[in-house]
TrEMBL record:
Name of the protein: HlyD family efflux transporter periplasmic adaptor subunit
Keyword ATP-binding attached: no
Organism whose genome encodes this protein: Diaphorobacter limosus
Multidrug resistance protein MdtA-like C-terminal permuted SH3 domain residues: 307-363
SUPFAM superfamilies given in the database record: HlyD-like secretion proteins (SSF111369)
Amino acid sequence: MSRQTKYLNALALACALSLPLFVQAHEGHDDAPPALSGDSPRRQSDGSVFIPKSAQRQLGLRTLAVAAGEHARAFELAGTVVMDPNAGGKVQAALAGRLEAGPQGLPLPGQSVKKGQVLAYVVPTAGALERSGQLAQQAELRAAKELAQRRLARLRELADTVARKDIEAAESELQSLTARLAAVGAGLQQRDALVAPVSGVIASSNAVAGQVLDAREQVFEVVDPARLRIEALAYDPAQAQDVAGASLALPGGQSVPLRFLGAARSLREQALPLSFAGDAQALSQLALGQSVRLVVQTRSRVAGLQVPLAALQKNPSNQAIVWVKTGPEQYAPRVVRIQPLDGVHVAVTDGLQPGERVATQGASLLNQIR
């Protein structure tokens, strides 16, 4: 046997002996999927999920048995705190003039006032020509009054020879001049009293002693904090006609039920104003003009199974699904049709049966198991 033939036989034998080692090393490569443990969460071939009880507790899974019923729809509206027109009002200057403090001084915001209480005075300001004309008219009336007094006195001395009607005419002229003189004098010293239209507190004040005001300028705003109202704007007329009630979330997390008072019949800023009233003590925590968010319930109802919004997930086909507990350690996805109720719940109209337990907490973690 030649040397070349011996070399080829040795090379073939070496390759044959190393082949099983190569195959074994390839089968243990990291690309191969690891063996599944019998107690690990996993997705089944039918799309359901197997998850042991221990894993359920670790993931914090919670389920809820759903029941059929009719539920009111809900939608959110932006609202504003407004005053009750019967328990609040504005104090405006009827005349242009200079502002003076009232008997108890100028009230401050938040101060309590009574209906009819004088808050301030407005002293009319007139020009130099107008004031001089009033003074000249006052002087003429004063001189005419003195002449009328003297004439009446002479007629009374000659009462036996003078007709009674002449004496009565002189008396009437004297009374007229006296009244005209008093009116002109009051016009020169007149003060317009600004009084509180209702009992309540001063919501806003634009008053400063000596301030010059224009006619119809607002000086004070008085409101009764126990009778505040909520006004919301509905841009869909159909929504405005289907309102049953509403609820208001206060900053502290408290939810206040509101009573629907009515909807306007004319548009304002392309929307219909809606009026709501609620608990006086709760609404008194709000400020006049504060913006709030309302959750409005409708009179129309939707038949279905109410589930929390957190229970809804999406499958690979982007369909809405919920996870239903079919066994102690089994969860199955169900494609559902929904109708929105409010910002927290939805109504499932198709895909669920009453009594089934739906995963409401941890549903997003179930959706990630592969």
